[in-house]
Write the structure tokens for this entry.
Amino acid sequence: MKINQKLFFQLGIVILFFGLIGILINNLTINLIRTGLGINFSWLFKPASFALAEHPLPYSSSDSYAWALFIGWLNSLQVIVSSLLLATFLGILVGFARTGKNSLLGIISAGYITIIRQTPLLLQLMFWYFVGFLGLKDNVLIHIKDIFIISNQGIELSGFKLSSEFSALLLGLSIFTSAYIAEVIRGGILSVPRGQWEAYRSLGLSERKGLISIIIPQALPAIIPGLTSQYLNLAKNSTLAIAVGYSDIYAINDTIINQTGRAIECFLILLTSFLLLNLLISNSMEIINRIIINSRKYN
Amino acid sequence: MEPVVVAKNLTKSYTKGLRALDNVSLTVNQGKVLVVMGPSGSGKSTLIRTFNGLETFDKGELNILGIKVDSTHDEKKIQKIRRRVGMVFQQFNLFPHLSILENITLAPVNVQKRRRAEAEEYGMYLLNQMGIDSHAKKYPSQLSGGEQQRVAIARALALKPELLLFDEPTSALDPERINEVLDAMRRLAEQGMTMVVVTHEIGFAKDVSDQVLFMDSGKVIETSPPNIFFSNARHERSRKFLNQLDKH
């Protein structure tokens, strides 16, 4: 392509981009003028006057909207971090079962991955909430001497309680994401050449030792980028909390929009929260990736 | 003395009608070198890979160093065999994330539970024997193909094996690098190592081997001493194969 043509196309794209943004800003201004609201954050410090079922820090309805949002953010963080850990654990188990020698485990994990990936997450969350927990009614599913109880109240582990909303969200997000993580892990393992397996086997190393010392270190660089994108998806998918009535940041924002009509401010807050959260996740993963790459002394 | 390798009627089929191994029987005695030749797809790699359990077989019996294996592929027995048999691959298969010395000490430390210092000392001795001790701290990708293959031989020797298997050890090398590997193998043969070598290197087979086994379509066509095989092969199929090799 000639330089003139290239310049023409690039100019076109720039004009299109700014044109689109201009239209959006124009719409926003017109709407703000029409409703007579304007952008204003002073309402944040007024009392929220709604209750929250779950709050890791003290909260009452006389606390401010800002505090309610912060509680929501903490709730989100709580469910994201715990789902992330559980999903990784499950994903590793299923991923290895899928690649391993045992054909029965292989079939079971392939079935798990297929079912989980082929159905919508929203449906799965509803399933865990209504069928899994609320479906228990007054019945208790598992009761081991007051140490571990699963009932319609959620999960209780020696005095440490998880609400049924949190539990459903935790299970739903973890299981859904674990199916994708399992595939990422399988892909990483398969990226290691066949000869590496034959080499450690011919040296008499056990399968466990070979996997830990030979295969996993070579599979990790291929696993980390895929894992990062699954973590980011999990964080964003946590906003489906609203479906099971868990007070995450999205659900609280939704309530606030209904009460105050401050949709634009709330969306800005939401956008910034998730941007920060996901930047945190992707940067942490980037650091892990760097450590792995720097510890490699080969190409 | 009991032979090191005895194979009786080994048979392996992938699909009906196609046999990777067809009733293969052979014996390798202590200190002898058996060279396995044949066109590609004749089953020679499959054959030597059954000797340390990297390939299974459907029928027949194997006796490696007195350990008997049949088609049930008993993991415990295979593991015992692997501790006493070394293998060198066409593609070297060194561990890219470990240094040369770590590649060599991995099995002695983890399988034989030897002390690291002792394993390293013996590893350095082996690298010295292979003429590559100056590379001990380097990583496989920093070495040439010939050097990598000599590391692979040292790695196979680290467990002090009683049998060495070579699966086309020079096929992936540049022509000018082939001899450094063949020379190392020649020295091992002179030291009395029992070896089974799949190769197309006629010179090596003529000089070093005690027997040449020629395979085609999974069958053993003939087993002859090299002087007979290369000058006056008994079988028409062998002579045809040797003619083809000469043209290259």
